[in-house]
Design brief:
The radius of gyration is 15 Å and the shape is elongated. The chain is 41% helix and 20% strand. The chain is built from 4 helices and 4 strands; from the N terminus they run βαβαβαβα. With 109 residues, it is an alpha/beta fold.
C-alpha cells in the first residue's frame, strides 16, 4: 500500500467511483468525497474487502464553507493525488434555468 492518499471528489458515482476503484488497484489509500454518505460508505466497504484503506468525507462542494472544512480535514493527510471530479450539469434554455443553480454549477465545476 502506498504511503500517500488519493483524494477523489465526486467519488460516489460515475467517473469518480471508477477512479477510486482504479487507484485502489494501484495500492493507494483513498479519501472519498461526495454529498451522498451512504454511497461513499458502500464504496469504502467494497474497497475494504480488497484491502484498501479509505476515509469518507461527506461534503457539498457547492458550499464555500464545505470546501474550507474539506481543506482543514485534509491538512494532516499525506495527499499524493487529487482528482477534483465533483460537478453537475443542468438542462434547458439558459434564460429559463434557475440563476442560483447556474452559479452553483459554475462554482463546483
Amino acid at each position: 500500500m502506498k504511503k500517500t492518499y488519493a483524494v477523489i471528489t465526486g467519488a460516489s458515482s460515475g467517473i469518480g467511483m471508477a477512479f477510486a476503484r482504479q487507484l485502489a488497484v494501484e495500492g493507494y489509500r483513498l479519501v472519498l468525497v461526495a454529498r451522498r454518505e451512504n454511497r461513499l460508505q458502500a464504496l469504502a466497504e467494497e474497497l475494504k474487502k480488497s484491502g484498501t484503506e479509505s476515509m469518507v468525507i461527506t461534503a457539498d462542494l457547492s458550499e464555500k464553507e464545505a470546501c474550507y472544512r474539506l481543506m482543514q480535514q485534509l491538512e494532516p493527510v499525506p495527499v499524493g493525488i487529487l482528482i477534483n471530479n465533483a460537478g453537475f450539469g443542468d438542462c434547458g434554455s439558459f434564460l429559463e434555468t434557475d440563476a442560483e443553480k447556474e452559479m452553483q454549477m459554475i462554482d463546483v465545476n
